[in-house]
From TrEMBL:
Keywords: Hydrolase, Signal. It comes from Idiomarina loihiensis (strain ATCC BAA-735 / DSM 15497 / L2-TR). Pfam families: Esterase. Residues 1-22 form the signal peptide. This is Predicted hydrolase of the alpha/beta superfamily. SUPFAM superfamilies: alpha/beta-Hydrolases (SSF53474), TPR-like (SSF48452). GO terms for molecular function: hydrolase activity.
Length: 380
């Protein structure tokens, strides 16, 4: 087994027990909806490692039921640079039928058809409020399940001006005689920006759910590739209720496909990483600056796969950008020690201990152990 893979195995044992990420409550008054809004917000673990770094936002519809597992999975996947670190925001609509449907059905009178108003709330009220309080970047992903999956499908096909990517898990595309699918036949994306990345999944579901999935597939397959950037996937072993977990994991990997610069054990130098993300920007239309976890994963991979100097350069750049990151200072200490530079290793480790204590880091025990070992080696 490669040394790096051994490190990953050890690292996994440390993080599984704490994968559920702490969240905070965000409240505001919506003038558009004329109601109070309560959202749950999970910040990336690295949020306190910088005073200026901005993060994409993942808006979770049906936040009361879907927020926790999605926030946990974003935390896990971003730790290994499979997806970017994101601010996860769970929002729950008080009237799902009205907020998540874009057409009115006679049978539901005034209880449907409010999707456009809800979009205005998200775009013109919620997002500016989040930007005011948090370091939010101009890249927005939405995810929804069932009726809210219909809504995220609506956003993916009608609001490329607002969102960059969408996940729709078992969406209720049967609504109003497949109205959204009929709209998609004539819909086009804005030519001046890359098409919204859109992931749609369906579980083992009968009748109109299965029919809507097949209809959507035929419509999208008939579209030119430039119209929609989509992926459809079925989960035959899942039910409508169970599919949200795997649907969101696969959806996140889909809308951020190609994001991980070093998915296996191959390695890249800092210059190669910078070139990689310059190319990725051309693909998705947004410049994703490297985050704490990317510097950490790519730096350690390079060092443990024999390019210690590459790893050192990557991690040194990391602590330059994130000068308060106990994770990066601790990894840099490890790499300095691999290069037999114990004096620099101890200095980096001391910084790691300082910031780990300030941040009440879950890695404090491991960081203090390395610090103690380095002190002994330096004394000898």
């Amino acid at each position: 087994m490669h040394l790096y893979l051994k490190v990953v195995a050890l690292f996994l044992s440390c993080i599984f027990a704490t994968i559920a990420h702490a969240s905070e409550i965000f409240t505001m008054k919506s003038k558009l909806l004329d109601e109070g809004i309560t959202a749950r917000v999970a910040l990336p673990e690295s949020y306190e490692h910088s005073d200026s770094f901005q993060y994409p936002v993942l808006l979770v519809m049906d936040g009361s039921t879907q927020f926790e597992h999605i926030a946990g999975n974003v935390n896990f996947l971003s730790t290994f640079s499979i997806v970017p670190e994101m601010i996860v925001v769970g929002v729950s609509a008080k009237n799902r039928l009205k907020r998540f449907t874009h057409t009115k059905m006679e049978a539901y009178a005034d209880r449907s058809g409010g999707a456009e108003q809800y979009t205005q709330f998200l775009q013109d009220e919620l997002m500016p409020a989040l930007q005011k309080k948090y370091r939010v970047s101009p890249y927005t992903v939405v995810t929804g399940h069932s009726l809210s999956g219909l809504y995220t499908s609506y956003l993916a096909t009608h609001h490329s001006d607002f969102i960059n990517a969408a996940i729709s898990v078992s969406p209720s595309l049967w609504w109003d005689d497949f109205a959204l699918i009929n709209d998609i036949k004539a819909a086009e994306q804005e030519a001046e920006k890359p098409a919204v990345r859109w992931f749609v999944s369906m579980a083992n579901e009968p009748n109109e759910m299965a029919e809507s999935y097949e209809r959507l597939l035929k419509v999208l397959e008939a579209k030119p590739e430039s119209a929609f950037n989509w992926e459809l996937k079925q989960f035959p072993n899942e039910t409508h209720d169970s599919t949200a977990l795997i649907g969101n994991v696969e959806g996140l990997k889909s809308v951020f496909r190609g994001f991980n610069a070093v998915p296996n054990i191959e390695i890249k130098s800092l210059e190669q990483l910078q070139a990689f993300y310059a190319d990725y920007e051309k693909t998705v239309g947004y410049d994703f600056p490297m985050s704490v976890q990317q510097y950490n994963v790519y730096g350690l991979k390079a060092a443990y796969e024999g390019q210690v100097d590459w790893g050192q350069t990557i991690l040194e750049k990391g602590v330059e950008v994130f000068d308060k990151s106990e994770v990066l200072w601790d990894s840099l200490a490890t790499v300095y020690a691999m290069n037999d530079n114990n004096e620099s290793a101890l200095k980096a480790s001391n910084k790691a201990v300082q910031f780990a204590r300030e941040h009440q880091s879950k890695y404090i025990s491991e960081i203090e152990v390395q610090n103690s070992d380095l002190k002994k080696q330096t004394e000898n």
